[in-house]
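Progress against Task 2.4 (sequence-to-structure conversion) is shown through the following example record, which the project officer requested during the mid-term review.
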Amino acid sequence: MFDIPHLDLPPLRGAAGRVRLPGSKSISNRVLLLAGLAEGETEVHDLLGSDDTRVMLQALQALGCGLQRDGAVLRVRGLGGRLQVHEADLFLGNAGTAMRPLTAALAVLAATQGGRFTLRGVPRMHERPIGDLIHALRPLGCSIDELGQPGYPPLCVHGQAGGRLQTQQPIRVRGDVSSQFLTALLLALPLVADAAPVVIEVDGELISKPYIEITLKLLARFGIAVQRDGWRRFTIAQGSRYRTPGAIHVEGDASSASYFVALGAIAATRSALRIEGVGSDSIQGDIAFVDAARAMGAEVQSGPGWIEVRRGRWPLRALALDCNHIPDAAMTLAVMALYADGPTRLTGIASWRVKETDRIAAMATELRKLGAAVNAGDDFIEVAPPARWQAAAVDTYDDHRMAMCLSLAAFNPLAGANPAQPLRIRDPQCVAKTFPDYFETLFGLVQADPAEVPVITVDGPSASGKGTLAAALARRLGWHFLDSGAVYRATALAAGQAGVALDDEAGVARVAAALDLRFDGSRIWLAGHDVSDELRRESTGALASRVAALPAVRRALHALQLSFRRAPGLVADGRDMGTVVFPQATLKVFLTASAEERAKRRYKQLISKGIQASIADLRADIEARDARDQSRVAAPLKPAEDALRLDNSQLGIDESVDAVQQWWQQRNPLDRA
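Structure tokens generated for the chain above:
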């Protein structure tokens, strides 16, 4: 996940490949609560790992549920409807799927078994209404204190042991603000339906009906029968009791699938984009997004657990659609509207106003930044595609869906943007709420014109700190990192493993051409094996120097190094990155430090590893190596003519990174705008 203030996306021009979706947030948190309330132990497979599920798990653990991880399986030992803990302070972040149902369940349990529970979250959660749920629970005999603004969290639910709830009359709840209020009651009231059936009646039009379908289907899996009379009346059977199904699988998130369905509709021109984890057998209402994408012109095929999408009609067809049945996924349609042949009007989205942010206002503001004409009201948004696309830094409002939807605007070259425009996503880590690896997944699918992918090269002599600087800079920017020295060390290692002598230039070149190398943070993988420690050995470095002197090997590795230039950008370090490999790099840096300072740094590294060394000998070795590198025939060490020089003899790593980042900001069009 990118933990950076902003992430810059270059113009994107295509997409292909396969994506495996994370588990559904809506299903994950419902399953966790049901397993926590049930008798017995439940094995939960394919659970979403996200901020929302993290706070639910922390709450369940605080309430006394047993949680045990076994690889990808989570075992939940439920409470069997009996409180183990009677007082707790629960922090639930911005997770409505945790706040609303836990409020109802704990209010009911505290009222009958005694207890006192505080439920709170981030500031935005304290702006999300919960008054309708409170008003439904209080007539039952639940005691709920509003600790802040009336009708909003934080809350305190409490009661005395031996209390009885007034369930003889139907429990009434509004349905036109959020379906989560009804879901909360449906999940909580089976706990008190032992002596008589419990009836819930909905006032007003129920929105987001497909989410209620999810709730009902999951209740059935845990032994709770609910009779539905249309969408107005729900009856929980007498004698209801939560029982574990033993094992349950969480299907992929259909709302998250919408971004990749849209991606295929916009950019999959050569072959279909395949989405796995959710398909035609989904129990989630947002799977109906597929029908909306088809209506806009996408070519879609699907089956159990999979969807394949490619571009069909282009530009996309503008449409008018009531989105009450797909409220979350409808946000993706608002961004797809940028690629349509006219204005697209989405209605039935009043629930956007009470989500992680006011999504109608937020979407209107950000789409206008891109050049779109937008008209919005209480329950609709109308989007006309840009007449002229604009480079923009879009805000995400700590809302995961805003970040993921808006990333699709980077495909503006496909809509005729001239010039093609980069896109800045502010606060990209907000996607951790439901899809922590969203951007890494996206970048694994997209194609960009290499000339439009920014590159920063960091060249310099041995022990100048160029690798440390380049890696730290790449982390700050959220870019890919290429350690060209590691490429040569890996070649030497692979040649040795293949039994190829290092003086066999043609043989080593063949090894280099077939090198299977992958950088993953600070780890380096060769042919699927982690070789990070082996590559850092002094002996491997000495072998790499011999390999780097072979012209045929350097030519073989040239294409491999070029392949690392992928969205969103690349920081490459070495000795000829700016002069030979990436001569058109956006920014070239030549890092220097005195031989004395470099010898001291190398000395500290060796001593820390328990290796005896002499500073004088190390300095002599560095000076000799500099002379060899500067005089060699193949790619001699020298700064590119347009490189900016940075002497870091007296600079720490953070100061060096700051200096280079400032140079980049002076050249970055998104910083100059």
